[in-house]
Known about the structure:
binds glutamic acid; alpha/beta; Aspartate Aminotransferase, domain 2; 381 residues; four-stranded antiparallel sheet
Amino acid sequence: MKALSNRIAGVAPSATIEISDIAKKMIREGIDVISLSIGEPDFDTPQHIKDACIEALRRGETHYVPSSGIPELVQAIAEKIRRENGFDCTPSQVIATCGAKHAIYLAMQAVLNPKDEVILIDPAWVSYEPCVQMAGGRVVHFPMNPRTFQVDDSIQDRITPRTKMILLNSPSNPAGTVMERHSLQLVADLCEDYDLFALSDEIYEKLVYGREHISFASVGDMAQRTITVNGFSKSFAMTGWRLGYAVAPPEVTRQMLTVQQHSVTHPTSFAMWGGVAALRGDQDTVEMMRREFDERRTYLLEALRGMGYAVAPADGAFYAFIDVKGDDVAVARHWLMQGHVAVTPGTAFYAPGWVRLSYATALPYLKEAVRRIYLLRTGSS
Ligand code: PMP
Ligand code: GLU
């Protein structure tokens, strides 16, 4: 066999998905594993969203549709952005995608040339760097300030003549932190001064606890250079639907659309009707889920702190990111093999020494996971 693509051979598989697959396999083998490894809401998709999809199927909405998405969804996204995110948006800027993940992939393909650099703020989610690499670009890492978990002005030192984009993710996966306005302003000033694009992944925007989510594109003139990525997986518990979207300057959206047309054509037609119902329908379920996450968060943070762990400011998303002061991969392996609790080591997010626990799991399971971690920690199991 001839050699396969070097471009892909150099890309690491997804650690979040691999660990969750190992946990699932152990569960299939009859082992009582509690998985706090994957960021996936445990709630069912709200009924009115499912109904809208089923009705679309019944109506026969089973054929090709416009490649940027059904006009009803594109319009609903543009309205949602104007209503909730504080910047202007026309339908020509919107593209519906197969999950937020594919929006990020399309954005990198649309914007990057070989060797272009993207500044990534660590700790960062596992799929950003592979998306940059698959587009031929290179990631330049910048660690968040370890005391404040915000960006400080030393980020400027990472800018080179090849820098094309800064990637933001607030609320953050895996840190659970929310960027404050002064951090966003600092990044906005750099984008302006050095003529950079920004990609702002706001998929956890609805999951904030006592904090305000600020869309990066609403800061100054940033809408003119920002690709805002969002989706339905987290806010509406729709992970399996594979539905997300991006809003970008029209030239960028057009290039993303070219890649979409030649790869997936468009997201599944009837799934998009579920997306319309999610955005236009009752938002009570979103708030119900947020409250439930908040309750779990309060419990988990107190339990972890009680065991002596330092936890990053968990103001958003559904992750507790804790300092295990040692070999995080060994700790995660120990917890899985001996305690049957699956978590994701911080190394996967460029933060060795830390471990991510997802609290998108019901309270009784969280309590049992805490009990097992406590037993391992005190050496009494
Ligand atoms: N961005 C972040 C930060 C995430 O945690 C996820 C979760 N998978 C995604 C994007 C992608 O979400 P999806 O493709 O399911 O919309
Ligand atoms: N975003 C989630 C996580 O970080 C889902 C898995 C993935 O797509 O990486 O666990």
